[in-house]
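Could someone model thiamine diphosphate with this protein?
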Amino acid sequence: MIGNPATDFSVALLGQLIRRGVRDVVVCPGSRSQALALAAAAFDSAGLVRLTVRIDERGAGFLALGLAIESGLPVVVITTSGTAVANLHPAVLEARHSGVPLILLTADRPAELRGIGSNQTTNQVGLFGSAVEWIRDVEAPHDSGFGPDYSAELAHEAYSEAAGHSGAAGPVQLNLAFREPLSGPVTEVSTLTPHEWPERGAVVGLPIDQAGHTVVIAGAGAGARAEQLARSLGVPLLAEASSGARFGPNLVGAYRALLRRPEFGGRVRRAIVFGHPTLSRDIPALLQRPDVEVLVVSGPGSEAYNPGHRAASISSAVRYDGEPDASPAGRAWLGSWVHSSREILSGEGEAASAADRSLDDRPGNLGRQQLAAFRETVTRRMLAIAVWQATWPHDRLVLGASRLIRAVDENVAGKKISVHSNRGLAGIDGTVATAVGIAVASQDGDGQAGVTRVLLGDVTLLHDAGSLLFGLGERRPRVQVIVGNDGGGTIFDDLEVAETAPRDAFDRVLYTPHQADFSALAAAYGWTYRRVHNRGELSEALSATDGQFLIEVSLPR
Ligand SMILES: Cc1ncc(C[n+]2csc(CCOP(=O)(O)OP(=O)(O)O)c2C)c(N)n1
Ligand SMILES: [Mg+2]
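Reply:
Sure, complex below.
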C-alpha cells in the first residue's frame, strides 16, 4: 500500500535516527513540519523516544541543548519554515562553540514554491552559516519514494556529523521540503534494531615527563579528566566552578587571588589547559606570559582555547604514566597553593554551617551567634555559597552568565557535583530552557535524581521568561530558579565605562533598569514563588526540592 509520502519519509527518517542513538526529540508546532511532528508523537507513544513540545523555537533550541548536554547524545529539533528556523540560531551558535550535538530538522517549501514570494518562505539553506557542521537540503518526498536506503543514509550522515565521529561534535541541519498533502496517518512505528557504531580509535597522548612548577587549568567543558591529571602529576588544579573539575585534593578554588601573587602565579612555568576558561582575566594573562609553556588539551568545541596563539602543543588528550611529583619541592609547590586557597575561602563556609546548625536546632535554644547568622541579609557571596552547598551529586546546577557565576567561582570550595553554564558564547539567553532540558534528561529514569537549580540574574531570567512555560501534558521536572534581583544588569558597573559615561545614559542603555514583578511572573506560569531576605529563609527555600520553584533574592546594586 502506498501511504502519504511526507509521513512515510518522516517515519523512516526518524526511525533511522532513533536506531542510531537519538533518544530525545523536541517539537515546535507548525503546518509544514506536521508529518515530522506526528511521526515523533507516534514514536513517543510507542516508548521509542522521549518527546518534548515547546511553542517558542528559541527556547526549544536551548532546551534541546540542555537535553544533549545531560544525555551526551544528539538531540533532534523539529520546526516549521520561516522565522521559526531563525529562532534556533542562538542555541545553534552556543552548541557550535561548546561542541554539543543537535540535529535540526527544518521543514521547508519544495523547490517550485521557493523564490516566488510564497508565504513563510525564505532561504533556509545557509541561514546558520558556518554555525552548522553539516547541512543537506532534501527535496520533497514524492509518490515514487526515495528508495529504501535514502533515509538511512541521511540519518547516518547527520548523526555521525553531529556526534563528531569525524571532527568536532555540534549542530547539523537537515532542511526538508514537503509538498501537499503534508501528512497522512502514521500506520506503524516499530522497534528498530539498534545500529552498532564502530569503536572510536584511541587518542594519542602527549607525554609529560616531569611536573616542575606546573599548574593544570580547567575551564568550561574540561571535565573530570583535568582533575585526574592534576592528581597524577601532583600539581595544583585551577578549576572554574562550571568546569566539571572543581573538586579533589589538588583543587585551588581561590586561583584568581593566588595567580596575582608573585610567589604563586609568578612562579608558574607550565600550564596545561583543559576546556574553555572564561571567568577571569588572570588565566588568559598567565597563558600569554613568555615564561610560561602552554599545553592545550582541546575541549569538545570546534575552537581550541589558545590566547595569544602561544600554545606549544594542542592535543585531544594527555596521558601521564609516571608517579605524582613527590620531591620536597614538588610537594611544597602543591601544598602551598592548596593550603593558601583553603585559607582564603574558609570564612563564609563557617558562617553558613553555623546557620545550618541553627536551622536543625529550631525551635530549641538558638545560640546568639547562630541566630545572628540566621538573620543576616543575603549577599551575593552568601547566595553563591548557599546554592553550592545545597547541591549534591544527584542534583544539577546551572549558572547563568553575568555576576553570580563569578561570585560562585570566586567563593566556593571543592565538591564533585554536576555544574553547567553556557560558556560557548556566554549569552544571557536560553538559561532557563537549558536548565529545564538538563532537568528533564537527568530526572527521567531510575528515580535517584534530585533537583536542578538555576542561579541567575534578573535580566537573564527576564530574557528567557517564556521558558517558564510548560504546556499541558508536558513533563514538569523538579527545578528551582534562583534569581538574584538587583534591578538590572549590574555587571556593567564594574567596567571602566561606569566611571566615565553620564550616569543617566549609562543606566538606560547598560544597566537597563526594570521593576518586573517576579511573583506575578511565577503565578502566570504556575510556579511556586518565594521571596527570601535572610540566610535562614534562603536555606529553607533551597531545601524545598519539589515542583517548580522560583526563589527571588533582592541584592544591592
Ligand atoms: C544574549 C546576550 N545579550 C546581551 C549580553 C550582554 N550581557 C551580559 S551580562 C548582561 C546583564 C545581565 O544582567 P543580570 O542577569 O541581571 O545579571 P547581573 O549582572 O545584574 O548580576 C548583559 C545584557 C549577553 N551576554 N548575551
Ligand atoms: Mg541583575
